[in-house]
Design a protein that fits this description.
Blueprint lengths: L1 H10 L4 E5 L3 H13 L4 E5 L5 H15 L4 E4 L14 H25 L5 E5 L3 H4 L5 H20 L6 E7 L5 H6 L2 H9 L9 H12 L10 E4 L5
Parallel strand pairs: 1-2, 3-4, 4-5, 5-6
Helix pairs in contact: 1-2, 1-9, 3-4, 4-6
């Protein structure tokens, strides 16, 4: 999803910095797509939940691009297990990435995004749908919703919008690889539109939120799920 969003924003005319952990080949491929749109792109390795690494990441972006207008935070992990069986180490890992990571990135973004810019977090429709097995994940994304709404208010006077997009089940490579075909079919049947989301569906919402048409949308969680909930 992050790769498609990066490509969408490059197509919208943005130069794009990509933060990644682990998969440098995917990061490099994403940068290649950005450059294919005629924009500047660069990839930076960073653990976004580590305050020092995140600060160094934003320093490197400042040095490379000179300024920062938009931050889109897509990093997140899940470990679907019923609450009664979930190992607390897995709970901590989910919340380190999804909650602490969002907090750290938003803190840096709030300090560095130029006035008139935009911050977008990725939440989840699972907060509202509340399916069994996703207690830790849904709780972490509920925290993302709260952080988003509060930061929007705290940035009063700077003309910076802060929103979250909350996808439903979306046919990313990770989702397709980890979800049995039967479950995919069941989830695809739930929205009135009768299909899974596609990464470009979510990228289009992000494009709207950070573009001129979305300037009056602020402090909102936008559910992008085809009517899933």
């Amino acid at each position: 999803m992050g790769r498609v969003i990066a490509g969408q924003l490059a197509g919208d005319g943005f130069d794009v910095a990509v933060a990644y952990v682990g998969d440098i080949d995917l990061a490099d491929a994403t940068v290649g797509e950005i450059k294919g749109h005629g924009r500047h792109g660069a990839a930076f390795a960073a653990d976004i939940a580590d305050g020092e690494e995140a600060s160094a990441l934003f320093d490197a972006i400042d040095d490379r691009f000179g300024h920062l207008d938009v931050v889109v935070h897509t990093a997140g992990i899940n470990h679907p297990v019923p609450l009664i069986d979930l190992d607390l180490a897995d709970f901590d890992a989910i919340h380190r990435v999804n909650v602490r990571g969002t907090f750290v990135v938003n803190q840096q973004a709030a300090r560095r995004v130029r006035d008139g810019g935009a911050i977008v977090n990725v939440s989840s429709s699972m907060v509202r749908f509340a399916p069994p097995g996703l207690s830790a994940y849904a709780a972490s994304k509920a925290a993302v919703d709260a952080l988003t709404r509060i930061l929007a208010k705290e940035l009063r006077g700077r003309d910076i919008t802060v929103n979250a997009v909350a996808p439903g089940p979306t046919a990313t490579a990770a989702f397709l690889a980890s979800t049995p075909a039967e479950e995919q079919e069941q989830l695809a049947a739930l929205p009135p539109l009768g299909r899974l989301g596609r990464p470009d569906d979510i990228a289009g919402v992000v494009s709207f939120l950070v573009g001129p048409a979305g300037r009056w949308v602020n402090g909102q969680v936008v559910y992008a799920n085809g009517g899933f909930v």
